[in-house]
Amino acid sequence: LASKLPQVGTSIFTVMSQLAQQHGAINLSQGFPDFNCPPELIDRVSYYLQQGYNQYAPMAGVLPLREQISLKTELLYGSKPDPETEITITSGATEALYAALAAILHPHDEVIVLEPAYDSYVPAILLNGGRPVFVPLQVPSFTIDWNLVKAAITPRTRAIMLNSPHNPSGAILKSQDLQILAEITRDTAILVISDEVYEHMVYDNQPHQSMLTLPELASRSFVISSFGKTYHATGWKVAYCVAPPALTIEFRKVHQYLTFSTITPVQYALADFLTNRDHYLNLPDFYQRKRDLFCQLLQDTRFTFQPSTGTYFQLVSYENITSEKDQDFARRLTTDIGVAAIPISVFYQQQTDHGLLRFCFAKNEETLRAAAQKLQNL
Ligand code: PMP
Ligand code: GLN
User: Fold this and answer.
1) pLDDT tens per residue across span 63-107
2) Whole-angstrom Cα distance, residue 246 to residue 138?
3) pTM score above 0.90
4) What is this enzyme's EC (predicted)?
């Protein structure tokens, strides 16, 4: 069989989590919390399971959940998407990203991808006949040089993929970035696929710059978020896509035949739980405390870093420790020191090694302290 994805191997998240398990290392690699989701939310899921909400959900998602998303969007970003025509529930943000690309790409269409990029983007573009056009983020700030983006635009450019807060760097977009994006896509057919799964993890009182805050950008965007991140339940794989009606129609055509619909009892439980705004409104504080603790602990190591501005990831440079390649160092850190991290070079198509690692700080205090103690031995 001729592979359609000859370059693709096992995801770094699987590789590093397995290595951590084999060596009994503390796993700060793959992004997931080591604490449970809110007990009230689990109670709601059990309730709906027991009440028999166990058959297919409507293709677009259960209406109460779409209504709650609409209200949340209005509260946070000032625009109120129509639950009927502009919101679709998907089985994870991974599905939503794929469905958006599959809905819009024709053979040889180009998609601008900022690197380092989350690992699912490029395979999803390639499988849909598209061509990724890479633009590097600026190092070490991981901000966007919009002149490079402008220079990458051609008549074949169908979409730009953005991710803020950004995995793996923890960088966030500023309002000026949105203004420039609006300008350079104005009067073009270029669409925006905006991966905002970490929308509630932005620190130091900065606002999250959602595409939904600017009507002009919202009118040409697929905005994707994930309940897995927000509710400490990455295993549930429930997410959503907000897009204007014409884009949602095309998006749902793909969703309808990719998964058709998403797990029913969890959708109802989330709809109930979203009526309580405290959880997501408190999330920046909750994670900022973890970031601050982790950064304080890292001060006693030889890693250097700028505190993360968003996501639950902290990027560190190990230039004072070793000149090893990042993948070799990440491996040795796991097997010999007992802490697993993600090397950043895997988020680039071409070999690009800045000597950086990503740690996930969505962990209990004891886990972060135990990891830091090991890292202090380097
Ligand atoms: N985008 C980014 C930037 C992510 O970090 C993740 C999760 N790690 C996803 C998408 C996928 O989210 P989900 O688990 O909801 O598919
Ligand atoms: N998004 C998670 C991360 O960045 C991993 C998800 C996965 O394992 N596919 O660590």
Assistant:
1) 999 999 999 999 999 999 999 999 999 999 999 999 999 999 999
2) 34
3) yes
4) 2.6.1.88
Q: What is the ipTM of this complex?
A: 0.98
The answer for residues whose C-beta is within 8 angstroms of residue 300's C-beta and 6 or more apart is 372, 376
- Report residue 322's pLDDT band, with 50, 70 and 90 as the boundaries: very high
- pLDDT (tens digit per residue) in 162-202: 999 999 999 999 999 999 999 999 999 999 999 999 999 99
Please state, in angstroms and rounded to a whole number, the distance separating the CA atoms of residues 170 and 376: 23
31 in ligand 2 pocket by Cβ < 6 Å?
yes
| Residue 47 φ/ψ, nearest 5 degrees | -55, -50
DSSP one-letter code for 310: B
Minimum-distance ligand 2 atom for the alpha carbon of 14 = 8
Domains and CATH numbers, the chain: 12-30+279-375 (3.90.1150.10), 40-276 (3.40.640.10)
Please work out whether the CB of residue 226 comes within 6 Å of at least one atom of ligand 1.
yes
Q: Distance between CA atoms of 20 and 181, rounded to whole angstroms?
A: 40
Q: Residue of the nearest CA to atom 8 in ligand 2?
A: 13
Cα 292 to the center of its chain, rounded Å: 21
**Ligand 2 atom index nearest CA of 29:** 10
User: Is the alpha carbon torsion for 171, 172, 176, 179 positive or negative?
Assistant: positive
Task: Among the bound ligands, name the one nearest to the CA of residue 234.
Answer: 1
